[in-house]
Amino acid sequence: MASIDTATATESAQLVIHPVWVRITHWINALAMLVMIGSGWQIYNASPLFGFTFPDSITLGGWLAGALLWHFAAMWVLVVNGFVYLALGLASGRFRRKLLPIRPGEVIADAMAALTFKLSHQDLSVYNAVQRLLYLGIILVGIVIVLSGLSIWKPVQLQELTALFGGYDAARYVHFAAMAAIVAFLAIHVLLSILVPKSLRAMITGR
Amino acid sequence: MPRIRKTIPGVDPRLLIKDAAALMPDPARRKFLRGAASVGALAFLTGCDIVDGPTAESALRVVSRFNDRVQGWLFDPNKLAPEYPESAMTRPFPFNAYYSEDEAPVVPAEGFKLEVGGLIDNKEPWTLERLYALPEVSQITRHVCVEGWSAIGSWQGVRLSEFLKRLGADSRAKYVWFQCAEGYSNTIDMPTALHPQTQLTFKFDHQILPRKYGFPMKCRIPTKLGFKNPKYIIAMHVTNKDLGGYWEDQGYNWFSGL
Question: ipTM score here?
Answer without folding.
Answer: 0.86
